[in-house]
Design goal:
The chain has helices spanning about 15-25, 30-45, 50-60, 65-70, 100-120, 120-130, 145-150, 155-175, 185-190, 205-215, 225, 230-255. It is an all-alpha fold. It has two domains: about 10-70, no CATH class; about 85-180 and about 200-255, no CATH class.
């Protein structure tokens, strides 16, 4: 039997993305094995509808689900969805946040953490509205107008947008490990496996203000000019400040 299926997150079609991401967000933690089986079914069904379910049934009749699961191992890996879906009448960001100013990212970051905290659809709606623009320049005053378009999307369509943000966020964290360090566990913590402590989220709007007040980042300009700085340029400068402060702390510790 000749079977061809998507081999990566990027190759999934619109229907597959919506259904698999919904499972990923709401069911994977509670019941990983059963949820993964449902993901495999969606992977091989390919499209919604009776005839596609019938075709899937014929495949499962000849090949056990355990064998089919091998084709979906990429679904258990960190997603690499770096291109946002098109939304009519709106401009989407460049892949991997390529054209974002830091001000827009600060709004997106705030709404994203609110959504991750409680999976609330209101926070997801705000996140989606903050991701898109009416023109090349970001204007927070336009969020209400943008939401008139993004609110028309289905919940699953909005979840794809939110999940794409999550994937781009992970890419950003990989590029700037000094800003997004991976948590380290002590040997005692590994042995006792304590309950995770909820990390307090520092809004990027506060980081922007601190950067403006820092004498060594005057090159970014005043508050309004800093807000317009492209995200990767901002992150590079922020990384240099962190490295400088860490060196100062180490030198101070040696002198004590």
């Amino acid at each position: 039997m000749n079977i061809t299926v998507a081999k990566s997150w990027q190759e999934l079609n619109e229907w597959q993305l919506q259904e698999i991401i919904d499972l990923y967000l709401h069911h994977l933690d509670a019941n990983p094995e059963k949820t993964f089986e449902k993901m495999i079914i969606i992977l091989f069904q390919k499209k919604k509808g009776f005839w596609n379910r019938l075709r899937l049934w014929k495949i499962i009749k000849q090949v056990p689900i355990s064998t089919l699961s091998e084709f979906g191992e990429f679904l258990l890996q960190p997603p690499k969805l770096h291109s946002f879906p098109e939304v009519e009448n709106l401009l989407k960001p460049a892949d991997r946040f390529g054209d974002l100013c830091i001000k827009q990212f600060s709004f997106m970051d705030q709404f994203f953490h609110q959504w991750m905290e409680n999976k609330d659809d209101k926070a997801l709606r705000r996140l989606c509205a903050s991701i898109y623009r009416l023109s090349e320049d970001f204007d927070e005053q336009s969020l209400a107008k943008i939401s008139k378009y993004t609110d028309k999307l289905s919940v699953k369509e909005r979840q794809v947008i939110g999940f794409t943000y999550l994937s781009c966020y992970h890419h950003l964290a990989e590029q700037f490990p000094k800003i997004y360090p991976k948590p380290k566990k002590t040997e005692e913590e590994k042995e006792n496996t304590p309950k995770p402590v909820k990390k307090v989220h520092l809004p990027f709007s506060e980081i922007i203000i601190n950067m403006v007040m820092n004498d060594e980042t005057k090159s970014l300009g005043n508050f309004h000019e800093t807000n317009k700085t492209r995200i990767y340029e901002f992150m590079n400068v922020f990384t240099k400040i962190i490295i400088r402060d860490q060196k100062k702390a180490e030198e101070y510790a040696k002198r004590k």
